[in-house]
Amino acid sequence: MMKERRLQRSLRLMFSGGVAVGFGLLAQSVHAQETKTDDAPQQMQRVEITGSSIKRITKEGALPVQTLTHEDIAKSGANSVADLIQALPAMQGFIPQSSSVNGNGSGVETASIHGIGSGYTLVLLNGRRIAKSAISHNDYAVNLASIPLAAVERVEILTDGASALYGSDAIAGVVNFILKKNATDATITATYNAPTKAGGKSFNVGISKGFGDLDKDGYNVLLAYSHDEQKNLVAGQRGFASSGIVPFSVGGQNYSLYQTSSYTAPGGVSLRHADGSDPTQFSPDFLKNGSCGPNTFQAGNYCKFNYAATVELIPESQRDSFVVSGNLKLNSATNLFAEAVASRYSITPQYAPSAQPLALSLSSPLYAKYVTPYLAQLGENPANINGAVMNLRLVDAGGRTDEYRTDALHLAFGIDGNALGWDYNASYTHSQNKFYDKAINGYLSNNMFQNIVAAGGFDPFAPSGTGVAALAPAVLHQTLDQATSKLDIINAHASHDLFKAPGGMSQIGLGVEATKEQHTDSPSAILQSTNALQPNFTDSIIGGNAGALPFSASRMNYGTFAEMLVPVMKNLDVTAALRYDSYDAAKNDANFDNAGNPLGSATQGNSASKSTYKISARWQPVESLLLRGSYGTGFKAPTLSQITSPIQFSGNTAQQHPCPVSAPDPRAAGCQGVTQYDVLQGGNQLSGSSGLKPETSKQSTVGFRLEPIRNLSIGFDLWTVSIKNQISILQENIAFSNPTAYSNLFTLFNDPIQGSQTIAFLQTPVNLASAKYQGIDWDHSFKTKTPIGDMSLQWTGTYMLKAEQDFPGTGTQSSLGKYGADQNVVFRVISRLAGSWKQSDTWTHTLTANYRSGYHDQTYTADDATVRIVNPDGSYGAFVAMPNHEVASYTTFDWQTKMTVKKGLEFTGGIKNLFARTPPLSLVTAGGGNQVGYDARYTDPLGRQFYITGTYKF
User: Which of 829, 827, 830, 831 is nearest to 816 (CA)?
Assistant: First the structure.
């Protein structure tokens, strides 16, 4: 075999690796290794390449695959898998850790290629599917927090649709984590990371040991354990996020973001008037003392609560992970393998104390003590007051704190080998994800709280700190919810030489699989309490959700595929893949109310089948230039949660609407004229045309890789993804403006709060949207030798051209370069430039620049009461519309130095955010969590950090 040229080598590194095949069929590939030397090159083994099922000698391919080697991972300075993946330029639209702070995170962190969404990015572990998060509202995606970074050898990212090989969910691409294997050394690694400012320290330690060399001894067993801890960072430790009052200026005019809450401590009062005039709000404590208490701001006679000061920017978390893998060589052509990955990840985010409105009787002692003395001062006529409400912030119960715990288990075993010229593999995979939500602090039993108040044990208007002991019996310390997601897969595949083509030997790959999905949710009694379907539950939770219902569902899926590689010419390969998938209707395993009555039919939703295909080609007209392209179709099946989640009460419509039905329709009896209507949410359990169908997509890429001079490699890829029949929830304005077309979304409902039958709007998912995403990815590298050492540069990035969604009645909505209607931002440019200097065998230095372009901020109208003018004297003026704020671009630099003391002993020190760049001001108030002053989804609040890592192999 001839020695590889530099272009070939760079392309091989970009596109190759021992990765699982197809839909997770490969269990254990033999890693291709460059064992050649200048004097005695050796044969390279066939391996499987991400995005292909055919084993081949590693070389440049037709698909854009990015590979993060073990060295790349170390250079990143990442503390976790989520830190590593979410920092890549191709990643946008994921769920970050900050979203667990009163957002929809609940301890889940995800990957999302090109901003298309977490549910469209397939995540694999050693080429096999992983059970998705059991939390259905998190896009039903894999939780990256369950994967131990210390056990990862490399990561391969296919940034092209791959449904034709992997089936559902691979519309945006694939992220494949390959764990360490066939190692014999004992390795100990420890890292400590500390910001220069208070809060947010982290550390991790990992140890692994291998026994037996697979090639020499015929077996290998690898054991690994890792422990990670992240300390919390609270808002008060960073000035840019410590308050809901955030000053800024635009065009020479001073403004202030005014994010405060009327639920306050000590409690405030709202007086209702018999003549229909606007309520009067005041804080008795302010009128008594002339000042507001801690964490509050004065607004007239009212003290509003500064909730932003009470949240965490980074929650405390810890992770324990175990990895066991084994390989046994039966003979030279047959290998048995088994692997197990078990992890426990817990995160305890804290945010503002519970808010609670409570009726205040006009004849009560509290009214006489805290309201009557101030009526004259407020100019109130007692005869015109027909009601009063206490607006409470229950600070004495503590900040609301959950422990979100995820226990993940991933098991796989099987056989692979070669027989009669066929490379084959058969395996079984069991993967499960168990989620627990435990109330740690801040949530209260409504029954106990009401009893304490009625008995005079808690004074809502007393200074904070005086009612801690009184409220303690009402504070909940219990598991609120449990959910489980399971995945069982049996699969087999094989590949073989087919026929001699003009450019070489053609090859074919074939495979089949059967998959069972299961999803259960078991909310506690207190979360079910306010649901009309659960009349025996009488208590409810203060500060949390309510009206939940249990469910358990399963579904069988089957798939088969074929792939053919044809070398049309010596420099032109064409690959075609075809896949067929069949999904059964969801089975309602155990979905009952507390009286044992079924809450749905035995089967729910539609069965579905889908064929997808992909054609790709690589052409190398000259040695220094590679042209590549692909075109294919994809699909995403509805999730079990989207189909089987029970319908449950979830509040009211945001706006008032006229009655959507009229007589003689029997539903008209529940109408109440122009008003707000109840909202019910849950899965779409219908079948036929009203039920859910798979989303479909078309993807294409075209790109090139050029080596104009020695050691310089330039790569660009233009990609496009179009999605139809996107599953989404219909917006209420569309449904109420055309009630005839959406008649099936209006139903009669026994309102648990009103205690009467009303008409309700059913917000269940339907196939109604379409989307288009387009962009350019680049990956350039340069290496050279100098008198002072080896130098290298790597520049990767993504330039987005389109990020659009179309909904009926609203037209095209874009979030490209702006805060969009979906409350997300798709950045126009994300880029990373890394330069390394290998000074000697002892010293290696790396400087990395990370860049995100700026964007148009969230906008407000005067009615939103969010942005106020600041007068020249510093006083606040009126609330105004503020549509023109631009969030600045965000650039940070990281430095790292690695010292190799001797073989097997290394120390690495680094500085993240070298110049202590503060996150740019963002006015977002409806982002991923409760943080204010910046958007925590896109920037790092820690500031400058120092870290040191030690690794010892023996």
Answer: 827
Task: Say if residue 664 is preceded by a cis peptide, omega within 30 of 0.
Answer: yes
Q: Please check whether residues 479 and 560 belong to one and the same domain.
A: yes
Average pLDDT of span 611-618 = 96
End-of-domain residue from the set 371, 390, 409:
390
Q: Long-range pairs for 500-505 at CB < 8 Å and ≥24 separation? A: 501/566, 501/567, 501/568, 502/567, 502/568, 502/569, 502/570, 503/566, 503/567, 503/568, 503/569, 503/570, 503/571, 503/572, 503/573, 504/567, 504/570, 505/567
CB 896 within 8 A of CB 909: yes
Count CB atoms within 10 A of the CB of residue 434.
18
Give percent of the chain above pLDDT 70. 89
Same domain, residue pair 900 and 804: yes
Assigned domain for 27 exists: no
The answer to whether residue 890 is domain-embedded is: yes
Q: Which of helix, strand or coil describes residue 273? A: strand
Amino acid at 895: W
Write the pLDDT tens digit of every residue in 879-938: 899 878 999 999 999 999 999 999 999 999 999 999 999 999 999 887 778 899 999 999
- DSSP class of 384: G
Number of domains in the chain: 2
Residue 690's pLDDT band, with cuts at 50, 70 and 90, is: confident
Q: What is the pLDDT of residues 365-399, one digit of tens each?
A: 999 999 999 999 999 999 999 999 999 999 999 99
In this structure, the answer to whether residues 190 and 328 fall within a common structural domain is yes
* Spatial separation of the C-alpha atoms in residues 336 and 109, rounded to whole Å: 33
Same domain for 168 and 285, yes or no, is no
Candidates 789, 787, 897, 913; CA nearest to 845 is 897
**Tokens 């219908």 sit on residue:** 686
| Cα torsion angle, 866, 872, 875, 877, sign | negative
pLDDT tens digits for 663-678? 777 777 667 667 778 7
Q: How confident is the model at residue 645 (pLDDT cuts 50, 70, 90)?
A: confident
Question: Average of pLDDT values for 824-828?
Answer: 94
Q: Which domain holds residue 337?
A: 49-245+309-354+394-647+682-724+764-953
Report the alpha-carbon angle 878-278-303, nearest 5.
Answer: 60
Please check whether residues 456 and 405 belong to one and the same domain: yes
Q: Per the omega criterion (within 30 degrees of 0), is the bond before 266 cis? A: yes
Q: What is the CA radius of gyration of the chain?
A: 30
| pLDDT score recorded for residue 417 | 94
